[in-house]
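Re: zinc ion structure - here you go.
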Amino acid sequence: MDEVLCCCGRPNDRTHCPTCGSFDTAAKPSKAFKVRTDGGGFKKIMMYRCRKCGKDFDDLQISVCWAPPERRGSRDVKQIERTPNPEFEGLSLEERIAKAKEILSRDKKDGNDSTTKPS
Ligand SMILES: [Zn+2]
Ligand SMILES: [Zn+2]
């Protein structure tokens, strides 16, 4: 079977925790159970335990994985986004808001007033 990606972006051929996405899982053969399939047969469902978050899950839950997407550096990106603008440094909240409005109107003017006469 070709490598199929799970909805969380992890390879589907490796069992991973549908809660946290960790590959560090342990199968629990003694807890395996069978479900009836549409065709009238039975399908064996394996139970697992995530060693990272401690959650139990089974083969059925893997298909509805809600683990956070595996993206390295996504945290860093957020931190960069949250880095305060140096223009805002040392200003109070009200001053920041005023400054932000000023910057916004300034940008707007730069974009719109290029053809109009300077006042
Ligand atoms: Zn997944
Ligand atoms: Zn987990």
